[in-house]
Automatic annotation (TrEMBL):
It comes from Hyphomonas johnsonii MHS-2. InterPro entries: Cyclic-di-GMP_PDE-like, EAL_dom, EAL_sf, GAF, GAF-like_dom_sf. Residues 166-408 form the EAL domain. GO terms for molecular function: cyclic-guanylate-specific phosphodiesterase activity. SMART domains: EAL, GAF. This is Diguanylate phosphodiesterase. It holds the Pfam family GAF.
Length: 411
């Protein structure tokens, strides 16, 4: 049907933008059929609830949020087969004539198509009505409406599936929080001159199914609005070990900008010796408002908190974070550290970040050191601190002094 192609091409098809797509569907089908009102209803507990409405100038007849008993409107009767999907003149149908709503609105002509969920159950209905009879309406018009109903059905089912997935994700994160199904591990950050731990980075490991990397868990928490709750819980557990560290060592922790500006984060930092804490902001974290973030950090940094930009060199965001936040520490991403001994381009980039650090009195920590050659090259480039599997893997236990001395001696 060429005319349908023209009509449907006018509908926006941006995934996730259900308001635009469904509203446009109603507007186009109403205009095409010459009707006064079009609406999409959802059936909930025996009632038809209006989810989208297109009724220019007639908003008093139907608006979003209105609900009616299914027995009192056409929807329920159409669904049960007692009324046809197309009624060109309600005066010609005995059941329609007998219904009070027919005379209250009034309804002269009516068309409706059920919207079915993927399991075949009724979600609701897409309907059009005119206050006057419309004898020109025919099966071709009904078929046109079916096309639009099919578009709406596919979009609604996609939206329902996404909502179900989000509900499952939220339940999963809530379950992890309720049961505390996560624990901190600590990776040593070495002083590369003394070859002893200067501090530790606290990382989170999850013990729940499915087995996934920590970033997947935190990203999922963010998708369902629980990022702050999960981050704060992880921080509380990680920081509980701060008292176990020697006084000359610090603890590095990770937090997103949204969590850092929260009241919960400020409360968590209240009674801690902030001069022994390094706060890392990852390159991948989006900062929507640097001024607000700086305002939240200012009193904490005044009390001694050190700020680090993680994954420096991994992308544009890290450079922007560095310029905007003036960190105390720049952490080289492992993509720069890997093969730095044999790659002149990587050495040049590390050298550029070392120059920045000297100019701003910042420190540099190299992440992801995995070989002796990488370690030796980084030391030659002036990097004084580093971490990686070659130096020490993340572990639940902190590296004891005997182990540190043994490592320094090459034992």
């Amino acid at each position: 049907m060429p005319h349908l192609d023209l009509l449907t091409s006018a509908i926006p098809n941006r995934i996730g933008d259900s308001d635009d797509l469904l509203q446009s569907t109603l507007e186009i089908v109403r205009k095409h059929l010459g009707m006064d009102v079009a609406y999409l209803s959802e059936f909930i507990d025996g009632r038809a609830v209006f989810r989208r409405v297109d009724a220019p100038g007639l908003e008093e007849l139907a608006k979003v949020g209105d609900s009616h008993n299914l027995a009192d409107v056409y929807c329920g009767h159409v669904l049960e087969g007692r009324l046809p999907e197309l009624i060109a003149d309600t005066a010609d149908n005995a059941l329609a004539r007998s219904m009070p709503i027919t005379h209250q609105i009034p309804i002269g002509a009516h068309m409706s198509i059920p919207i079915l969920r993927s399991d075949g159950s009724a979600y609701g209905m897409i309907c059009c009505l005119s206050r006057d009879p419309n004898p020109t309406l025919n099966d071709r018009d009904l078929e046109t409406m079916r096309v639009f109903a099919d578009l709406a059905t596919r979009h609604i089912n996609r939206e329902l599936a996404e909502n179900e997935q989000r509900a499952e994700q939220r339940h999963r994160i809530e379950s992890v929080l309720a049961r505390g199904a996560f624990s901190p591990v600590y990776q040593p950050i070495f002083d590369l001159g003394k070859m002893t731990p200067a501090g530790y980075e606290a990382l989170t490991r999850f013990t729940d199914e499915p087995i996934r990397t920590p970033d997947v868990w935190f990203n999922e928490a963010a998708e369902v609005g629980l990022a702050e709750a999960l981050e704060i819980a992880a921080l509380e557990r990680a920081l509980a070990r701060l008292a176990d560290l020697p006084n000359d060592q610090y603890l590095s922790v990770n937090a997103s900008p949204d969590t850092i500006v929260s009241a919960a984060f400020a409360a968590l930092m209240d009674d801690l010796p902030l001069y022994r804490i390094l706060l890392e902001i990852t390159e991948h974290a989006q900062v929507n408002d640097y001024a607000t973030l700086l305002q939240a950090l200012e009193p904490l940094r005044r009390r001694g908190l050190k700020l680090a930009i993680d994954d420096a060199g991994a992308g544009y965001s890290s450079l922007r974070h560095i310029v905007q936040l003036s960190p105390d520490v720049v952490k080289l991403d492992m993509s720069l550290t890997h093969d730095v001994d044999s790659d002149a381009a990587r050495r040049a980039l590390v050298g550029a970040l070392m120059f920045y650090a000297r100019e701003t009195s910042a420190q540099v920590i190299a992440e992801g050191i995995e070989t002796q050659n990488e370690l030796d090259t980084l030391k030659l480039l002036g990097v004084r601190k580093g971490q990686g599997f070659f130096l020490g893997r993340p572990a639940a236990a902190l590296l004891d002094p005997v182990s540190a001395v043994a490592f320094r001696r090459g034992a």
